[in-house]
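I hope you will forgive my troubling you with a question about protein structure. I set the record out below, with my sincere thanks for your time.
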Amino acid sequence: MAESVLDRVVRILAAFSTDEPALTVTQLSARTGLHLATTSRLVRQLTEHALLARDADGRVRIGVRLWELAARAAPTRGLREAAMPFLEDLHAVVGHHAQLAIREGAEVLFVERLSSPGAVINYSQVAGRLPLHASSSGLVLLACAPAELQEQVLAASMPAYTPDTITDPRRLRRVLAEVRRQGYAFNAGHLHPDATGVAVPVRDGAGQVVAAVSVIVPNDAAARATIGVLQTTARGISRSLSSH
């Protein structure tokens, strides 16, 4: 079956990433596998509707109109609105990174992050993704995910970011059981040797885990002191969600 125009447009929009938000038309053509002339025509039409925009150097990026439309109907909008007051308080306490994430398939999708100048290194970004096995938020969300998904992740290849990243399925299975038992994930040096991620689950009014709230702090003895304030933050977000 011939590919529709909509399919081609989706391929173009999906070519952008948080690491590379601006691309040339030639790069878009190469990444999408579309003919250069086809790519150029679709980019021109999308730009006319402000769904894409061109920089002064001719590179293409997501347009303001597309962001506006997405923000109106974002499925995480209610979650973010409920979480922000508590996330701001959490950030004020830890002074580094405070973030909110959900699970999308076998990845963590970060929907909000608050940071400070000079904060410890952090690989996560708003609208960015990480594998479930590698981050504290991912471990919390995976530990509460359906058994079928857990087995899928356990059976798949798990890339290492540091020597401490969990890559062995037997170790991951033990860690997931520990996360369920203790109610939090503590990842010291799993994504970067200098950083520790700590995460706890956020539940909705029905008690279902809908998100993870986490902090990224220096990898030192003080990191465990964040567990209590994280749990308090998660309870506040959960109460806010229940009242909506």
